[in-house]
Design a protein that fits this description.
alpha/beta; eight-stranded parallel beta barrel; globular; binds 2-phosphoglycolic acid
Length: about 260
């Protein structure tokens, strides 16, 4: 279902103590917010963050919409896959899972095919996948943005039943904008998101029901324009999600 979502991707950051403090600070600052807020700590802190969320006030997490997400999952349900974590295991803790992040595509050599299998596994387990898409600096320079996005979306949704696809969330994250401080022009982000919606529409006929976020060097100082753009349903925030005050400001901009 289409809704406003702001998701914090903590990546490989925080100690256990910092994760708990960050969680309480974020939740404490978002008491009256009714948009979906998701925090994605490292796997090893999912349980403490989950406990910290409900500790602030057992009813608060529901009211302010702070949900828990993971940063990745494997595609099989269980078995001999050393070091991997299954979507079914995650579903005991999380509502969301980030899939296909460019850092995983780049450093862990994840392919479109891997991501497609992970999307199916996550949906089967009842998780909402946040699927990341976006072109690299080279692909942008070669004028291949649209082609890259089209390929990534089409592969991610390949073979998905229509009923399950409505639980997808997509995030346009130009790789050149991630962690660089170089924010994408809002009109460029909007045109990329239109392409994404176009493909979803062609396959399933309901692109207007799906949330598409923007990610890449999002901060409170430049997020306002994104919040005003009707194609953008929220943000996937990296570095600035580690700063509770910044993250809260970003969330409130989408209110
Ligand atoms: P950034 O990361 O906000 O630090 O650029 C965004 C992301 O990787 O999702």
């Amino acid at each position: 279902m289409r809704k406003k979502i702001v998701c914090g991707n903590w990546k490989m950051n925080t100690t256990k103590k910092e994760a708990v403090k960050l969680t309480s600070d974020i939740e404490g600052g978002l008491k009256d917010i009714d948009i979906e807020v998701v925090v994605c700590p490292p796997f090893v802190y999912l349980e403490v963050v989950k406990n910290a969320l409900s500790k602030v006030n057992p009813t608060l997490s529901e009211k302010c919409g702070v949900k828990l997400g993971a940063q990745n999952c494997f595609f099989e349900e269980n078995g001999a896959f050393t070091g991997e974590i299954s979507p079914t295991q995650l579903a005991e803790f999380c509502s969301y899972v980030i899939l296909g992040h460019s850092e995983r595509r780049q450093f862990l050599k994840e392919t479109d095919e891997d991501i497609s299998k992970k999307v199916k596994g996550a949906l089967n387990a009842g998780l909402f996948p946040i699927v990341c898409l976006g072109e690299t600096k080279e692909e942008k320079a070669e004028g291949r943005r649209d082609e890259v996005i089209k390929r990534q979306v089409s592969q991610a949704i390949e073979g998905l039943p229509k009923e399950e696809a409505s639980n997808l969330v997509l995030a346009y994250e130009p790789v050149w904008a991630i962690g660089t401080g170089e924010v994408c022009d809002v009109s460029l982000a909007a045109s990329a998101i239109k392409i994404i919606r176009g493909i979803i529409d062609k396959h399933f006929g309901f692109a207007q029901n799906i949330s598409v976020l923007y990610g890449g060097s999002v901060s409170s100082s430049d997020v306002e324009e994104f919040a005003r753009e009707k194609e953008v349903d929220g943000a996937l925030v990296g570095a600035k999600s580690l700063d509770a005050e910044e993250f809260i400001k970003i969330v409130k901009t989408f209110k």
